[in-house]
Amino acid sequence: MKSFLPILFFICCCLQSSLAQQGIYIPAGGKVAISGTLPVTFWQNTLNDGLLGSAPGSNLYFLGKQWTNGTGAVLTDESAGGFTGTGGMFRFAGNTGRQTLYGGYNMAANSGGSFPNLMIDNAAGVELGDLQDASVRNNLHFQNGHFFLNGWNLSAGNITGYSDRRFVVTGTAIAGGYLYLRGNALTFPIGTDENNYAPASLQNQGATETFRARVFDNVYQYAVSGNAMPDTFIYKTWNIGRMSGRNGTPLSLSFQHMNTAESATYMASRANSFVNHFENNAWEEQITTTSTGDLSTSTMQQAATKHAVQLDAGANEYFAKATRKSIEGTKLLILRFEADRLNPGSVGLLWTTWYEVNNLRFEIERRLENETTFKKVGEVASKGTAINELRALDYNTLDLNGFRGWSYYRLKAVLRDGTILYSEIRPVPPQRDVLVFPNPNYGKFKVRVNGYLSNMGMQLTNTWGQVLRQFNIEYEADIDVTGLPAATYFLVIYHRETGVIIHKSKVVVLK
Hints:
Immunoglobulin-like, 46 strands, 12-stranded mixed beta sheet, disordered N terminus, mainly beta, 511 residues
């Protein structure tokens, strides 16, 4: 990579100056390298048919809608061969909807373009384009948003930053893409959709191997066919593969689900739950260890349960969870509890109970992210007309909450005999938005930021990424750039402490 010119973003654009509106193009035989600590930004759709190198510590922000690695694309690092070094970070950080990645990799042939490092930093997520897999040689990091496989495959050397809000989405259907990892202690941060995190992990005592995993909704009689199983199951099936096949070396496998994914029957009998393994054309119960779900690199926002088993797995194994019914002694069963921000000043709460025994009332408790304890903010009387209500009862209420950070809610059920029961905790994010007005303008405009607590910095750049003006902003700022010529500029707002970009938009200045 030493033979390349550093930071050739301008040259890359000039390669297709006549096609500027179509995006950035690195032609076959073209060589572009990213080096240094200053970030480089690709604002437009990018097609790489050539060689794009990166050095350790370099950062490329991709803000376009579609990145395509062509059949001849090469993304090298600083090593002699170009593929065994550290390389730079390719940060997909769009803010105008989901971005699409045509990775240019073929998992079956184990060949094609591969990123040295990739960061997902788009709240709407990144999805794979049709007919192409993707590969990340070193680190895949989740900063914000999800990675949607869209029916294709993803290979990664290591994954960091994942949680129940940031993970790989393998899809709800039986058939779909896999996440491939290689190693002896692996966590697969996967889920069926954005709201259903269902990761798996494994410990391998033998030689280092490649494994794959995906999870899909529902549990079927014959794993991928037949009738759907009854409500004693979690509606998730994990498909795990040891690519070398069974070799007599047991694996320690763990499967985690969000407690909100449990059916009413399963929830009431969670203590009797276990893992089923599909073998000999039937589901067979395994010796199982149960614990609180902890497959996350940060604090889980919702409660989860993890089940662990040991067995010799092959290239295509299916696992599900079940329980034995046992609801004797249960006094209250909450089928669902949801808390969602309706607008910047209010949060809506709704819940459904399946049965209530001697219940008196529900108290709504809330904790803000800068508080350490829950406080009562509301109360709703039980709708039960009998001591034992064996039917579904729906509740809803509103909490006036304009807090600019995260809020956490739970229900406190107060029974007539003094018994206190608590629901699971539901996190509610602030309503985050950035307003720039008027836009277009004549050099004077206002910027208003909602939902962010930390101090922020703001930059106004031209289309080449050059910083023309820099400001600090807490909540609102009046901006005067009447000294700049009429043009389209880019407004970038970021956390001053971390440098993480939280907003990007165009500002049109008229004369």
